[in-house]
Structures are given as structure tokens and as C-alpha cells.
Amino acid sequence: MSSTAAAQKFDPARAGEYQAQSRIALAGYDACHELSACMLSATLGGEGAAHVLVVGAGGGAQEIVAASRLAPEWRFTAVDPSRPMMEIAVAEVARQGLAARTDFHLGYVDDLPADRRFSAATLIGVLHHQPGQEAKRQLLNAIASRLAPGAPLILAGNRYAYASQPLLLAAWGERWRMQGATAEEVRARLGKILEGADPPASEDAVAELLADAGFEPPTWFFSSLFWGACLARRIGDDAQGA
């Protein structure tokens, strides 16, 4: 499955149910976004100006909504390749009164000008949808090349191979059952998650991908079954020998 095919998974039907379904699939969905905003604000300081690249902003644009509460002068560039998901994000940003602070780009990070430099970036719920190691590396490299030296990246998503953690997978199914899913529906959802995503094999694998893209070792700050969130700073040009 290509990156384009991964984006096409988020068709109008899936986009429409994204917010509700995500809050079941990820226990602590809102807390993860709120803590991500807190980590960015703690790193950058919420009082000054900053320009944040939000990769995979489609859906509820929760990264933007949460960060705006702490940082009234921050601007955002939201990137997503799925039109249905982006339309939901645009509507939510407008509803929150944040449209004047947000630029939207329907497409990919690679489409942005190569000389753009952002103060920070977020990549939440995206990396495990990239098929294979090379696609993951390309995405992280594209983000890194558009960050200022020392700029933080918030990376959040599934970070274990599903088959390697059968207890977590079973608990994930129980999470759905707790929300009223039948046994048949749980089996269908487990089958879908096993076929529909390709997470890094471990936290060490995440750290290696980040290092390859020019980031410092990550600081992990949130965990929920397979899901984890971390912050990593882009290594300065001098440190990279560029």
C-alpha cells in the first residue's frame, strides 16, 4: 500500500466517523492532544510567536485547537492529503475562531516550499499509516528539513508491531466491547487494524527513525496500549555537520 493509498483510506464515510471512533480506539485521545500542546508550550514558551507545522491535521484539528489555548500568538500550517478529512478540520478551525491563524494545504509535506522553516511540528496518528520503513523515513525527513535547528517535533501513534503484543491487542478489543461492540464487531475491528496499518516495531525503532531523520533521542510523555507520544528536537545544522 502506497502513501497515496493510505490517504485514500480516509474516505467521506471514515472521515465522518473519525472523531467518535478515534476516542474509542485511543483511550485518552483528548489527553494526548492536550499534553502534546503542553509539551510544545513548555519547549517553545506559549507567550511568544511561533509557526507550527501540523502534519495530518485532518479530522478535528485537535492539535491546533489544543495549542491555541496556551499560545495565542502561534500560527499553524495544516497539511493533510485527504480532502474529506481536511474539510472537517477547516470547519472545526472556523468554529473555534482560529481560521485567521491557520493556513491549510491539501497535499503532502513534500509539496511545501523546501526553504520553509517552522518553529515546531506535530505528527499525530500518521506515521503508523505509512507503509514500510522507507515511507516513514521520507516523511520524517521531509518534516525535519522544514524545521529550524532545535525545533521540537511531537510524534504520536502506534509504536509496537501488533502481533508482538497479543495482550495489548486483546485489551484493545475489550476497549471496543466496553463501548458496546459485539464479539463479531470486535473481531472485524481487530482484523481491520492488523491489515490497515504498519506501526514501527518498538519504541527503539521509533527512536532510530527519528535519529536517521536528524532528531535527538525522544522524550516519551504519553502511553495508551499500542499508542505512545514523544517529543524530539531537530539536531542543529552544526551538530549534523551540514
UniProtKB/TrEMBL annotation:
It is an enzyme of class 2 (transferase). It comes from the Bacteria. This is SAM-dependent methyltransferase. GO terms for molecular function: methyltransferase activity. It holds the Pfam family Methyltransf_25. Its EC number is 2.1.1.-. CDD domains: AdoMet_MTases. One of its GO terms (biological process) is methylation. Residues 52-150 form the Methyltransferase domain. Keywords: Methyltransferase, Transferase.
